[in-house]
Amino acid sequence: MNGAVSFSEAASLAIHATAILAGAGDDPLTAGRMAEILGASEAHLAKVLARLSRAGLVAATRGPHGGFRLSVDASEVTLRDVYEAMEGKLETQHCLAGLPLCNKSRCPLGELLEKVSTEIVEGLAAITLHELRLVDKR
């Protein structure tokens, strides 16, 4: 069964990876270590981290003690910021099919979709990485 709300694998990895980096503080983590923690593909995670770096959310340091760390204060970055770095601007939705004839009054799901998507957008904007930080206990 598909969920009513779904994020791309890249957006999900971005949110989880930045939450891990928020928990790591100033200690850099390699893509390999984060992939191990997440049970994800290191190659895919490396692509996600590259996009987050281009968006200015993470910084990479090369070398034996290198890795990734947040380049911004975790208390100032929201989940919406991370999502939008991966997927583009997040907006409320009025129609699943994106049909031009649909609006709230003509689409059978319009009012519900607008309400739910507004709550998701506002919810992602209300949660910072600082609140969601994940600490590796291993």
Structure report:
The chain has 138 residues and is mainly α. It has a single domain (9-132), classed as Winged helix-like DNA-binding domain superfamily/Winged helix DNA-binding domain (Arc Repressor Mutant, subunit A). The protein is 49% helix and 6% strand. The protein contains six helices and two strands, in the order αααββααα. It has a two-stranded antiparallel ribbon. α1 (9-24) crosses α4 (79-87), α2 (31-38) crosses α3 (42-54) and α4 crosses α5. The longest helix has 17 residues, at 110-126. The two termini are 33 Å apart. The relative contact order is 0.19.
Keywords:
mainly alpha; Arc Repressor Mutant, subunit A; two-stranded antiparallel sheet
> Per DSSP, what share of the residues sits in E-state strands of 2 or more residues?
5-15%
As for the number of domains, it is 1
| Strand-pairing-aware structural class | mainly alpha
Q: State the fourth-level CATH superfamily.
A: Winged helix-like DNA-binding domain superfamily/Winged helix DNA-binding domain
